[in-house]
Predict the 3D structure of the following.
Amino acid sequence: DGGITQSPKYLFRKEGQNVTLSCEQNLNHDAMYWYRQDPGQGLRLIYYSQIVNDFQKGDIAEGYSVSREKKESFPLTVTSAQKNPTAFYLCASSILGNTEAFFGQGTRLTVV
Amino acid sequence: GENVEQHPSTLSVQEGDSAVIKCTYSDSASNYFPWYKQELGKRPQLIIDIRSNVGEKKDQRIAVTLNKTAKHFSLHITETQPEDSAVYFCAASKSGTSYGKLTFGQGTILTVHP
């Protein structure tokens, strides 16, 4: 399993803290995405980016922020404004256009 | 925006039986429909996909059918095996300014009993 790497695998956050989830890919993909997975709700899109220095809000962007300073990297910050951050977060990448998205192994975030 | 509904939410079958999972989508402009399999604690992985210019695609025991008029597509797994047990997600996306942005269904937990 190479290509797209997320870290850490598990993350614990205290209420009121911001945390940043890492996502790196070496597939030379232009597009990158962040999804949130909750039981029974499928995968919901948080943010996506199709080019360096540009990104778009997905369906549930409130309380999250991203940056895309390098083609290979698309970190996600979960801010204290996110009311229910405990979830499984998946990063994905793809070439531009309608095609397969490759997923990272995920980060499980728990608020303690 | 696009909305994808997936049914059933859980599906239990005996080994060797067939399994069918159905999805409907709302945006008639959607033209790419992948299916992902996610084993427990693992990342989703693409198992098959179909584009709107074809009505059916098959890969060994897995097939997907698409009905553009009715805006629904289905995953068919034949001769199921215990290793097919996983969560399956359908998704849809379209060309244009938001291309590559997948909208997922809620998922189906498939359990294959030996």
The CA atoms of residues 46 and 85 of chain A lie 12 Å apart. The longest strand of chain A covers residues 43-51. Chain A is about 0% helix and 50% strand. The radius of gyration of chain A is 13 Å.
